[in-house]
């Protein structure tokens, strides 16, 4: 059964308004993919940023504010490191410092540099601010409002936790502040017989049930609301696709917070609603981008099946799919001016500070030997960050 819905019972007016719309399907034409160098760069410049922040949070969570190098080495796959842990830390000498511990055993450890600690402390002030907590709580609530049962498994939320800007320990630090919004719930057992826990919205919030597109265009949906389309230079649709898009934009806009699963899934009206849901989801993310596989997994859980994937293919002027950094990343075109976010979220401002540190060509002198993988290595000048 589809797990996607809205806040209230579908009213007859909405049903009759859309159910008898003329049935149209996407034109039989291939929409080509064209590279966008600016958006590719927007994705590529954040290569390894998520891993760095994950490792930074792990280090700072320890009482000693350090971790043994062996910990990161053993869990290389868990941290999704592109190289060995030792090489990864050495690549970013402005963020990480490898040093030789003396107690209780002389083993190589990793700590943050003073520069990274400064950025972390400033970031912590934002993450613990009332303003930030209210912002992230409302975006998380809106995500749950896009679901049928007003709940999502925690593992699904975890797929986009970083992109939502949720604190890594949000269950302990954020949720208790908003008992009127959230509660942890049991969602039954998975195929392996293990209990599945989820996050549930306590009650529907009417004041949040307005999409970004409605806010920008006015909430009167009796007139068609068109999606912003930004095609890269040198790209244009085939004539019959251009005509189809023009007519498709004229179709009524159904809010992503309404349930329009009654529409035929192959109709153009259903596709416009699917794009509305996908568009709103992308706007909930602090960087307005996320890995394609995570987005498709979320869409599959919401009950859309392959419809998210088709929407990404049919509408390259709304969504761009980049093939950079060892994966595919979906980017919301309208959110970017060239490779820069048009409106920068507070958290993204801090992430760009980490990017600045990552790209600093700092040479750090090492005057000790480090025992790595059974080999004594003298740590001279660290390699340049990149």
TrEMBL record:
<protein>
    <submittedName>
        <fullName>Ubiquitin carboxyl-terminal hydrolase family protein</fullName>
    </submittedName>
</protein>
<keyword id="KW-0378">Hydrolase</keyword>
<dbReference type="GO" id="GO:0016787">
    <property type="term" value="F:hydrolase activity"/>
</dbReference>
<dbReference type="InterPro" id="IPR045040">
    <property type="entry name" value="PORR_fam"/>
</dbReference>
<dbReference type="GO" id="GO:0003723">
    <property type="term" value="F:RNA binding"/>
</dbReference>
<feature type="domain" description="PORR">
    <location>
        <begin position="34"/>
        <end position="361"/>
    </location>
</feature>
<dbReference type="Pfam" id="PF11955">
    <property type="entry name" value="PORR"/>
</dbReference>
<dbReference type="InterPro" id="IPR021099">
    <property type="entry name" value="PORR_domain"/>
</dbReference>
């Amino acid at each position: 059964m589809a797990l996607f819905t809205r806040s209230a019972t579908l009213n007859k007016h909405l049903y009759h308004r859309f159910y008898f719309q003329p049935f149209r399907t996407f034109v039989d034409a291939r929409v080509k993919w064209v590279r966008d160098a600016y958006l590719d760069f927007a994705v590529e410049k954040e290569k390894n940023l998520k891993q760095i922040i994950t490792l930074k949070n792990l280090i700072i969570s320890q009482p000693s504010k350090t971790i043994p190098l062996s910990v990161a080495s053993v869990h290389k796959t868990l941290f999704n490191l592109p190289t060995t842990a030792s090489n990864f830390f050495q690549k970013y000498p402005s963020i990480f410092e490898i040093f030789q511990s003396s107690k209780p055993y002389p083993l190589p450890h990793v700590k943050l540099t003073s520069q990274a600690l400064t950025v972390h402390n400033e970031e912590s002030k934002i993450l613990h601010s009332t303003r930030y907590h209210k912002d992230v709580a409302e975006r998380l609530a809106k995500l749950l409002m896009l679901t049928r049962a007003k709940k999502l498994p925690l593992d699904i939320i975890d797929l986009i936790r970083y992109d939502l800007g949720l604190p890594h320990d949000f269950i302990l630090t954020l949720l208790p502040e908003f008992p009127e919004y959230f509660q942890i719930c049991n969602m039954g057992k998975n195929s392996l017989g293990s209990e599945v826990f989820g996050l549930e919205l306590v009650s529907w919030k009417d004041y949040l049930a307005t999409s970004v597109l409605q806010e920008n265009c006015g909430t009167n949906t009796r007139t068609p609301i068109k999606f912003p389309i930004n095609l890269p230079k040198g790209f244009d649709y085939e004539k019959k696709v251009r005509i189809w898009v023009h007519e498709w934009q004229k179709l009524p806009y159904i809010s992503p917070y309404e349930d329009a699963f009654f529409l035929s899934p192959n109709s153009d009206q259903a596709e416009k609603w699917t794009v509305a849901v996908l568009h709103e989801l992308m706007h909930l993310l602090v960087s307005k981008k996320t890995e394609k596989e995570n987005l498709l997994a979320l869409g599959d859980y919401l009950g859309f099946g392959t419809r998210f994937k088709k929407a990404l293919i049919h509408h390259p002027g709304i969504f761009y799919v980049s093939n950079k950094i060892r994966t595919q990343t979906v980017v919301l075109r309208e959110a970017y001016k060239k490779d820069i976010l048009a409106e920068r979220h507070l958290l993204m401002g801090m992430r760009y500070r980490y990017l600045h540190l990552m790209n600093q060509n700092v040479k750090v002198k090492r005057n000790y030997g480090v025992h790595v993988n059974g080999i004594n290595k003298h740590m001279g000048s660290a390699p340049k960050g990149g």
